[in-house]
Amino acid sequence: MLKKIAILANGGDVAGFNAVIRGIVKTAENSGVEAYGFIDGYNGLLKNNYIKLSTAEDGTAEGILPKGGSIIGSSTNANVFNYKVINEEGEVEYKDLSDICVENIKNNGFDCIFTLGGDATQKSARDFSVKGINVIGVPKTIDNDVACTEITFGYNTAVSVAMEALDRLHTTGETHHRIMVLEVMGRYAGWIALESAIAGGADVALIPEIPYDIEKVASKIKNRQKRGKNFSVVVVSEGAKPKGGEMVIEGTRDNGIGVDNTKLGGIGKIVARQLEKITGLEARETTLGYMQRGGTPTAFDRVLSTKYGAKAMQLALEGKFGRLAVIKNGKLDDVSLEEVVGNNKKIGAVSGNTKESNIRKITMDNDLVKTARSVGINLGD
Ligand code: F6P
Hints:
It is built from 11 helices and 15 strands.
């Protein structure tokens, strides 16, 4: 019998975090289970910092469905299996502090932990599951790159924000006869770029999965010019790279071993300058950045998040632990966290741009690729 569960939200925030929390809490309350939330993701689990979650009047989780962000915070790159600490000599050390988290869970009597997060979060979730903790994951990220699910919550909102930006860039680009370049997020996968390019009627979409040839992109723009279209709209995924080249790294942080410390960014500007040079047209670049993550979720994300939250709690009620709630063939389903991490089995190693990491990238047989090509969106190849 489940009595107490706790939720943690981890990784970069997305619209829909609160909707998932609400879905879990409401389903728990309907079954007489108490819900709690750790503050700031795995950091809260480590520090034993948590609050009671309730959807009763004036409860902490009341009225949160449309609210952006996360009412229990979130933490990027907190790998408690390889945690950065400063020792007494003032030196940086990396320690496995997961046993403290296990103790916290046991001492508080939490029967299950819900981990709302992306690939790195679910990798830690699986590692806790190996340590005997009852865990259920819910796939979050604007990047849509979590393995084993067809869609993550937060993604649709990010695509909608990017689409709106493209609509706006269209009108200013057309007015001033410019090439308008929009850099979007997505890390090592081009989902946001490709889907927003289709939704926003862009002329070019550059994604990490297809290294681009700038001359091919310029030809597309010049052909448009020949047809009297003196403006073009180009979407560039932050992880896009030229053929034979590398991704552009804006900075590297030091948040621990086994976490993705790479901050991508800057490719939009490079593409804009190159296109200006080759085509002779003026180009302007816009980086959409954190607009894609903040704010209220779309209707789609509210529904998806509620479905995910309810499904996750149902799994707990059925005693199905060590699972990730997923969408498979368009339907709610669940898979084992072992399957989600794939070959990335080493305890403490988190995901990122490594050969072991199991993130879901766009494959060339995907309908989005076929559709983009069919309607003449240049993919840089
Ligand atoms: O993974 C989500 C994401 O928003 C990526 O698209 C982006 O590269 C990254 O997070 C930015 O992370 P941070 O919040 O650490 O700047």
